[in-house]
Every structure is written in C-alpha cells, then in structure tokens.
Amino acid sequence: MLIPASGMALPIVKSLTDCADYSKTIEPYIPQLAALPSNLYAAASSTDSLQHLYASTNPAISGLAFSLALFPIFLVVSEVNKNYSQVDRVWSILPTLYNAHFAIWGRVNGLPTQKVDNVLEFSVIWTMRLTYNYWRKGGYQIGSEDYRWALIKKQIGQPWFFILNVLFVSSLQSVLLFSVTLPTYILLLTSRLSPTMTLLDTVFARALMVLVVVEWFADGSQWNYHAAKLSYQQTAKVPAGYTRAQLDRGFNTTGMWKHSRHPNFAAEQAIWLILYQWACVDSHSLWNWTVGGVIAYLGVFAGSTPLTERISAGKYPEYRVYQERVGKFVPKLFGKRWDEREMERMAATKKQ
C-alpha cells in the first residue's frame, strides 16, 4: 500500500489493476472540480498558495478544469471573429501541454516519472510535426479557417451552427484534446508501483515515435505533390518525379497515398489507440475508462473524413475510382488495387 502524494490528491492503490479503476482514481476527486474556482480565487494572491493548490489537486481534475475553462474563450473569439478554427489552431499543442502537466505534477509530488517522460518526449515531437505542417499550410495566417466549417455552416444555417459551436466546436473538442491524454494519468499511477520502463513499455514508446515518423513522411508526400501540381499549373512543365496524368488528376496517389487514402489520419488514430493500449497493459486491464477519450477522438475522424472525401469526389472525377481501389485508412488486401498505368490509359481514353 502506498501513501497518496500531497494528502489525498492521488488514490491509495494496492495493485496495478487499481490504477485503472474509475471508482478509485477519478470518482473520489470530482468534488475538487467544483471547489477549484473558489480555491483558485482564494490562492490567487500568493505564489506559495497557488503551488500548494496545484500539488494538492488531482492532476486529472485540474487538467479537465483547464480544458473546460478554455471553452468560453474559444466560443467568444470564434463568434466575434466569425472564424471557427480557434480550437484547430491549438489542436497540435494542447495534448502535449496536458502530458507535460502530468509529468510536472509527478515531479512536484516526488513521483517516478520515467514512463510519463517517455510519453512527453513522443508528444513534443508529435506537436512539432503537426504544428509545422499546420503552419506551412497557412493555418496560423489571419483569417485562415478550415474550409469544412464554412461548408457545414452553409448546409445547416447560422442559428444551428451557433448551437453546434456551443455544444461541440468550442466545447467538446477542447475536452476531447484533454481526454485523449488520460491514459498518461494511468501511467503516472502505475509508476508508483512499477516505476521503471520495462521492455514492453519501451516497445510502446518507440511505436509512438515510429507513427509520428509515418505522419511526417505522409505529410511531406502530400505537400510535395501539391507544390508540384501548383508549379505545373503555373508553368505547364511537369516537375521531376511525377507524370502529367498524376498532376492532372488533382489528388495525390504517390508514395503512401497509393496504398491508403489517408495514411496521416491512419497513423494519427493509431497513436492514441497505442497510448491507450499502453495504459491497459501497464494496469493489467483489458480495457479502462479512458477509452472514452480515444473513442471520441476516432469519432472526429469518422465524421470529418467522409465530408472531406465527398468534397474531393465532387472536385476530381477519378476520386471515386480511387475510393473503390484504395483503402480509407488501411491498405486493401483483396480486390483490384490502384494501378497507375491503367489509370493513365483510362484518362487518355476519356480525353479522346
């Protein structure tokens, strides 16, 4: 039996299985969420009081409180500017802030943080990759907004879109970006009983890094293709590494994109599934309550990917063939696959 850090900020756990028990690790600390605003106000005038409040508040509860506090900020800024990509701008940053929060909280309370540190290392690389990709596509430019929000707003109308903004865009998305990191909280708890990285822990940590590398190359392939397409449209010259048919097609079918319609999305979803599985394995549980965050995260892709593909199918005539022959996330194992030469012949025949 271990004595809880900072009084009752963490539960007493007798086994690794206890670390994944919602009734022991979260439920007793829910009252802290309601008391936190008044406690924060009372401690605001003293740095020492703020530090004590931080250390004595369950880290999952303080993380949840922060994600909820962001909601009115996102809502007001998005409605004032009529730009609904406010959460999008911090999507690549918030999960790493939460993982850093768990690591810092553990250190403040003298807990072993080797496992959480490994999560944070991956998370920082993940943030660098996604933030850079978002930046180079112009996501941080003034007025930049995900084109899908405008399309949804046009379809359902401004009044209903405001409700969507209140219930999901500015609120649930913020909580989602916190909840997807909750497996790190379980790893923090298991570290009290099993403080060092095992071989299996190392495998999980390296798998997360590998998936970030996959995302990097998928992003690079997509970026290079569209840069080549733009150059081709401006100069009528086909850049090296591509054919005229590929560039005329309008969408990328090279590299990973020949085998998966969304290799970056596939890797992104796999990342958070693996983090969740890591927490399950470390807590000796087949599943645990943090699965809700993962399901919600996958739900975002389940909802947004069909919309993205519907737009692409409307813009590019060959995209429906691409959908038939190439798997959405995982490469197809059976049936007819993408054949570049065959597609080029089909395109030539249509032109004739």
TrEMBL record:
GO cellular component: membrane
Protein's UniProt name: Steroid 5-alpha reductase C-terminal domain-containing protein
Taxonomic source organism: Friedmanniomyces endolithicus
Pfam families assigned to the protein according to its UniProt record, in alphabetical order: DUF1295
Keywords, sorted A to Z: Membrane, Transmembrane, Transmembrane helix
Transmembrane segments: 60-77, 160-186
Cited InterPro entries: UstE-like (IPR010721)
